[in-house]
Amino acid sequence: MRFEPRPRAVDWTILAALALALATGVVSLATGSVRDGWVFFLHGAGGLTLTVLLFWKLRRVRPRISAGVRSGSWRVLLSVYLAVVALAALLTGVAWVLGANLDLGGWTLLNLHIGLGLVVVPPLVWHVLMRARRPTSEDWEGRRTMLQYAGLALAGALAWRAQQAVVAALDTAGADRRFTGSKPEGGTGNRYPATSWVLDDPDPVDTESWRLHVAGSVERPFRADYAALTGDGGTVAPTVDRALLDCTSGWYVERDWRGVRVGDLLDAAGTSDDARWVTFHSVTGYRFGFPIEQARELLLATHVDGERLSHGHGYPLRVVAPDRRGFQWVKWVTAVEVRESRDWGQWVAIFVSGID
Ligand SMILES: Nc1nc2c(c(=O)[nH]1)N[C@H]1C(S)=C(S)[C@@H](COP(=O)(O)O)O[C@H]1N2
Ligand SMILES: [Mo]
């Protein structure tokens, strides 16, 4: 039996695998919960399967490519560009898993992988629009095709498993990765990278004038000063949560965060019956929201491992959101807004905040 499916089947499977890799890649950025571990598995196994498919395809079209490049056909050149970007995305993904990293001025090899993944999209769309041929039933027919695809899926899963084993055996920097791909940053307290993900870079917050506003769909909106939140003023009792901050740049730290439980703040304000979401606003305009039941469990931290938060890590107050990716841990919080509906604008705000 020939292991390689028919050309058109290979092409469409590449498209499906690319779509899967892109979709799981995007989704993986927004989740940090172990329950969503399968998303990361599909991303890894799908990427490895894609490598095999691309190998078949490139071997097949090689003569056409050389002819096209020699005659300077821009269509072929664009296709070559697509192949190069896609292969670079695969390569950087695998290299990251194997423990490699790069210092790209604050960006990591994982960021580069994400960037390459996004750069694949325009030439891919163009390639599909220009060249896609509808597959005929012959391309798929029969038990053979089913077996080929079962084999492919199995090979992807096994390659993924083997890769995990190799990394563990080599004990490279890749070995301590979480299922999200992130690697540990050591240290204690404030000693770990301070990350602002696009442009946020506020002046240090002056807690003489700073207040936390609790408002929106509540019965008794109020403001609290810094002392009230650290326990000195006694509005709400501080508590400590051990929680893991996992940034999509590919690192994580685990710390003891001390602060006030959001549920206590909401109880003090008395939420209305229609309250469904809670958005945390930063002094920079950055903001992120959570369903109210989840928001109640979160901590607004003033301290990390017993140290007052440094400016870079969000002094005076930051969100601590276990199982959520770092970008949702809003820093320099100044308002807790109780809402009746979801805040879609946050997806714009996290990209454009800090632009003045
Ligand atoms: N206001 C604001 N909060 C923010 C960010 C930001 O850019 N602005 N970056 C987020 C991202 S991407 C991460 S990973 C964490 C990083 O927290 P750290 O600076 O303590 O490492 O903060 C989050 N909170
Ligand atoms: Mo991040």
UniProtKB/TrEMBL annotation:
The keyword Disulfide bond does not apply. The chain crosses the membrane at residues 38-56, 76-98, 110-129. SUPFAM superfamilies: Oxidoreductase molybdopterin-binding domain. InterPro entries: OxRdtase_Mopterin-bd_dom, OxRdtase_Mopterin-bd_sf. Gene3D superfamilies: Oxidoreductase, molybdopterin-binding domain (3.90.420.10). Keywords: Membrane, Transmembrane, Transmembrane helix. Residues 204-347 form the Oxidoreductase molybdopterin-binding domain. It holds the Pfam family Oxidored_molyb. Residues 179-198 are annotated as: Disordered. This is Molybdopterin-dependent oxidoreductase.
